[in-house]
Amino acid sequence: MEKIRIGIRGFAGLLGSRIVAAVQRTKDMSVEVGVVVPDRTLETHCDAIIDDCAYPAAREVVDKHYRGFPGVILLQDGAAPEGRLIAPPCIAKGGAGNRYRMGDCIMAGLVPLLYPFRDDAKKFRIHLLTQFDGKEPDYLITERAHAFYLREDLRRKVTGDIGSLFKGQDADVAAVVQIPSLLHYELTVQIELDQWIEGGEVRRRLAEMPRVRVAPSGIVSTYGINLAMSFSNNIPPIIVFKDSIEPWFGRAAQKIRFVAALCYSTAAVLSNLDAIRMLVQDMDPIEAMRQTDRDMGFIP
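^ thats the sequence. predicted structure below, dont judge the formating
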């Protein structure tokens, strides 16, 4: 099978360089072209283009240079609301053309956690603690380092994105709070179901989901996860704390609750690889994610 040829516009940025490193670990993809400024070689040598340039200023450039490109164009979340939203394994219904928009790092972690319960869910209730992504107006002082930032704009955006990917389920994002110095986002998820589910079944569904690992009982901090990741890059980016999962093993309920840690920088990169396999090869979304997991060493 011929490799999927990928072009990256903005490859010198943080996301672009991380995608290059991830693609190098695959067997079915290759980065053919990487550019900083628009270049026609992207269109002539690639099956898919990952565009990581800032919107809205880049919109005119994208429209001009990619107008005749027959392959897949993956815009990043900063291009919202341009493009059809994709957050593997889900893709928003409707829309036309070859322009897609990757969900942000929050969606890269949330969607794989919600997906196993999509057929039974009536309502998703979510609380998020994330890394501060703004710029300090001045030098960092203790008062700023210890502050938290309420992001109502992100709360509304995440609510809308979940609604576009999971039609028929009510999404309630209670809050998005940001603080400095986080390697992992914290995701608290509650799901109301239309039927009863046993605690062991909840664990099984989460454990079988690509990109997700259920941490053993007793692990209640990201300290051990951070330490392990400093020695190995074979740890999946989404870790569910087993002790947080309700209902407990052997009990049943119509409400699920669990807490997960998301290594956001890794999750955002790998979802681009999943999306390319889904769109270029028409690969089953779950199998696309499993292939990425195998390439990254998360599973044998």
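The two ends are 21 Å apart (CA to CA).
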